[in-house]
Write a structure and sequence with these properties.
157 residues, alpha/beta, Rossmann fold, 8-stranded mixed beta sheet, 3-stranded mixed beta sheet
Amino acid sequence: MKCSEYNSADIVGFYYPIGSEVRTEAAINNALQNGKIVGLPKVCSGADPEIYFHKLSASHIDLKDLTDGKYRTKEPVSDLRLHRLDLTILPGTVFDKNGYRLGYGKGFYDRFLSRKSCRISIGLAFEMQVVTEELPHSKFDQKIDALVTEKRTLRFR
């Protein structure tokens, strides 16, 4: 990734892509090879399931270090939880020009962002996922700090 937020981050949370989400494997490998601490989200069960980022311990992303998660996601096998991230890279299905995003409807990333466990949040999307109208949102929805597409970077804070 070519942005100052990424370059200055020591601990980065990524997502492992599913379906048509922007691929992150090369960026994860780049971060690991450049000495960054990298985490992937893991859904922790409970009355209200939450995501927490767990450290990847390998020097490159390898499917043997991941397990099938509850929601078609790949999760790290590691139990080493990262309590604070410098930067979190988020997926989404659609994003607006005000920093709101829609995911898959479980609210995991919104709850994660509301805990203030991350200094900066950046969404990754294809340009076709960015809409001009404001997305519907509630008081629980969290804005991201920036959005990166193949054509531009939008900053919201």
